[in-house]
């Protein structure tokens, strides 16, 4: 028997077995996860939030209320609390479904061709110039799908990133630095005749009213991420980023940094509290009592 043929036969057999083992392992892992229940979304932060919220100048630190929307499984997205969240979620699951179907199809064809065209000493080689029709199909189809996804994404993101800000929006300046978030409620100094805009430790915004965020960084790259509001924007030193959203659910939500920004990146978390318009006005009045007076 030809030793080279035996070697090639053995190599094909090992490859097919290894590939089959990977596929079986992935299937078993998925089944185990579904049967056992996946870990909760950010459960550690939901169950053990910081003991206190950052304090406003002259005010004692307050206990942190429970974090909303930080429960669920890896099969679910965080609870949506913004007006545009449903559109973002639809795009996310659409892209996930397309990617999954493509992955399964490609891997299935890989296994099929590895088996069908395994070494056979009796098979003669065939020379082919290819199939132009097939090549056009597998080039045009992904191009059309990607172009459609680009248009769908552009429609959603253009509104909250590049569209005109609503005239009645709550204006907030967010500054990132290692390793904390700082907030400034723009326009409050003028409204309440104070020496500076309010700078709360916990960001408060009113329910049902657009919130316009101006984002800056003092030092390195950060990323302003509101998982429940489907908002994520990089904070780049020397640049001001802008994004806006409209809250649709009251509660206290996490502000996370989604960019590795140093040794204590893991600890760079803030809080955003959505309250009713009446509660928001009452909160502003309380902050006004603590704000510095306007110089005479």
Describe this structure in words.
It is built from six helices and nine strands, in the order ααααββαβββββββα. By secondary structure, the protein is an alpha+beta fold. It folds into two domains: 1-37; 40-80 and 165-296, Sandwich (Immunoglobulin-like). Helices cover 41% and strands 18% of the residues. It has helices spanning 3-36, 43-47, 85-116, 132-162, 188-192, 277-290, and strands at 170-177, 180-185, 203-206, 211-217, 222-226, 231-235, 241-245, 251-257, 269-275. α3 packs antiparallel against α4. The strands form two sheets. It has a five-stranded mixed β-sheet with strand order 3-9-8-5-6. The longest helix has 34 residues, at 3-36. The relative contact order is 0.14.
Task: Estimate the global geometry from the Cα principal axes.
Answer: elongated
Structural class: alpha+beta
- Count of all domains: 2
Question: Which sequence of strands runs across the widest sheet?
Answer: 3-9-8-5-6
Mean pLDDT: 80
Characterize the main sheet. Answer: 5 strands, mixed
So what's the oligomer here? single chain
Summarize the model shown.
The protein has 296 residues and is an alpha+beta fold. The chain is 41% helix and 18% strand. It has 2 domains: 1-37; 40-80 and 165-296, Immunoglobulin-like.
Notable characteristics:
296 residues; alpha+beta; Immunoglobulin-like; 2 domains; 5-stranded mixed β-sheet; 4-stranded mixed β-sheet; elongated; disordered N terminus
